[in-house]
Amino acid sequence: MSLGAHDIEAIERATVAAVAPEACEELDGWLLPFDRGTVKRARSAVPLHRGEVEPATLDRIEDRCDSRQVAPALRLADAPCFDTLRAELARRHYVDDNPTCVQTGSARRMRDLVAADVRVADVDASPDPAWAALFLGEGFDPVDGVHRVRSLARATGSLFASVRENGSTVAAGAMAFGHGWASVHGMRTEQSQRGRGLAGRVLAGLAQAALARGFERVFLQVDAQNQPALALYRRAGFETRWQYRYWQRQQWPG
Q1: Which pLDDT tens digit goes with each residue over 168-191?
Q2: Residue 109 in contact with residue 237, Cβ under 8 Å?
Q3: How far apart are CA 171 and CA 202, in angstroms?
Q4: Nearest CA to 231 among 181, 182, 197, 205?
Q5: 254 lies in some domain
Q6: What residues have CB less than 8 Å from 42, skipping those under 6 apart?
Q7: N-acetyltransferase domain location, by residue (predicted)?
Q8: HEC string for 106-136
Q9: What is the CATH number of the domain that holds 153?
Q10: Is 232 a member of any domain?
C-alpha cells in the first residue's frame, strides 16, 4: 500500500488528535500542539506536507512557542525534502533524539496475529483504574505514565484494551479513530509477564474493535530501537513508511 500526500496529512492529524494536547494551532501547513505533559507527540510541531520549509515559518513557530512560554520542539520525518530545515535547526542549536518508525498495516492481519480460539483483550470505552495502574508499574517511568494515561484518556472516541488476570491488568493498549485511520497507542505489558504473547492479544482485541467500526487501515508509532516491539508488529503485518525524530532547541543559561 503506497501512501500519498493526503494519507500523510491524515496520519499526522490523527496522531495529534489521539494524544489530545491541551491546545493545538495550525500555521503555514503545520500543526502546533501545546501540552504541559511529557508526551512528545502532544507538544511538538509537525508539518502536514513533504516540501521545503521557509526559515520564516520556523521563525513563526518559535514565536508561537515563545508566546506560550514553552521550548520550541518539532517532530520531523527523515525525508530529503527537510535537509535544508534540519541544517537550519542545527544552526539554531536544536538537537534531535528518539528516532521513531511510523508503520501501517491492516486490522484483518492484526486480528490474525492470534488463533481464533485464543481470547483477545477486553476492549472498553474508557480506561479503568487497573488499566491506568499498568503504566505506573515496575519498569515504567511513573511520571511519564501519569501524563500518558491522562493524554490518551482525554482523546475523544478512543478505546482501551486490557488483558486481565487475577484481578489485575497485565497488558494494555489503546486505539484512536479519525481521518480514515485507526491507530494503536500506549502498548504496555507488565514486566514480569513479557514473552507470553499478551501484547498480541491486545492487538487482536483492538483489531476486532476496529473492524466492527468499519476501519481496515491502521497505523502506529514505535521506537526505532525497540526490537521486541518491531518484531511483534512485523508479525502483525506492519511495515515502516517513514521515520521521524524530535528536534528541540537547547536551552542556554542566562
Answers
A1: 999 999 999 999 999 999 999 999
A2: yes
A3: 7
A4: 197
A5: no
A6: 16, 19, 20, 21, 22, 33, 35, 151
A7: 108-254
A8: EHHHHHCCCCCCCCCCEEECCCCHHHHHHCC
A9: 3.40.630.30
A10: yes
Q: Which residues, other chains included, contact 240 with Cβ-Cβ below 8 Å and sequence gap of 6+?
A: 101, 102, 103
Residue 112 and residue 192 in one domain: yes
- Full residue range of the structural domain in which residue 40 is found: 5-100+244-249
pLDDT in tens, 198-253: 999 999 999 999 999 999 999 999 999 999 999 999 999 999 999 999 999 886 54
Q: State how beta strands 94-106 and 239-249 pair.
A: antiparallel
Q: Does 180 fall in a domain?
A: yes
Q: Which residues contact 7 (CB under 8 A, 6 or more apart)?
A: none
Are 224 and 132 in the same domain?
yes
Helix 55-67 vs helix 83-91: angle between axes, to the nearest 10 degrees? 50
C-alpha cell of residue 82: 527537510
| Domains identified in the chain, total number | 2
State whether 50 and 86 are in the same domain.
yes
Distance (Å, whole) CA 223 – CA 40:
13
